[in-house]
Amino acid sequence: MHEVHIKVASMGNVGRMRCVERKIRCRLNGCRRAGIRHAPSVFDACEHLLGNRWLPRLKISPLSRISVVIGVLLCQSLHGQENSLLSGSFSTTFNTAYIGKIGTVFDRGPTLAQYLDINIGSDWTVELWSSTNLSGEPYNTTYGDEVDLFFTWHHRFDDIRVSLTGAYFFLVDLERLNNDVWIGEAEISYVKWGYFQPYLSTRYFGKIGSESPERGCFAWLGIRSTFPTGIRQTSLTLDLSAAESDGALGKTSGLVYARAVVGLPIKLGEHATLVPSILLQTPMGDQKRHPLPYTERNEAVGSLALTFTF
Question: How far apart, in whole angstroms, are the C-alpha atoms of residue 196 and residue 198?
């Protein structure tokens, strides 16, 4: 028997706490309380409850729906609390295609991505990220469908910022571990150099199942910057980077790509921001000539994100 507890706590201006607990008991041969006769997993029960009662009938994953609900409730419950231990953000993003950090286009159709960041104190962050293909293909059948869970420690030492991340990537078939990967990532950046922040990042990919990609490492050298535009409530962000791989995931070793990401955050209010952006990428090294490239042609991907902070 599986049990899922969803607890939502909210505090009013007078400091009173109201706690609502939803307890869903799901059996593999049926979900009586959820109103489902045959539910093969907890995911189906969550999809039934969140999809049919709380959210519109969008073709997104149950975990995506859960992240939407938790994000909205956290924004509401922590609104106005200045000294809360928890802070964070929730975002939903429309992408014209899904291109990964390694440079590969996993889905050339439109995708919808959500993330929920929860900051615990000043040094710890937990993030739930998910994407869903919008091309009409069944869920769990394309690489546009993914759920990632990140745990990050980050700290600033004077002008140097260091972050260490552990993550688990649920790929395609979210209820099986046949092709999932885990990652370890480290980044160091110099945060006080005018408008520019140079950084060096490395990521190790580890295997989980028999169909998981090959192990290996990636490295990125880049520079980030934010420029004021002179227009009220807007700024211009820029991230320039180059990637190199040792052949991780069974692909070509050597230089992989050069990439530029340009964004234009537009403040809609104290806690809401709209961010249109474009990603431009070109292959480097032997990518165009190798039979197993990460990327073999120039890419341009547009995005539109709506972010709420709490």
Answer: 6
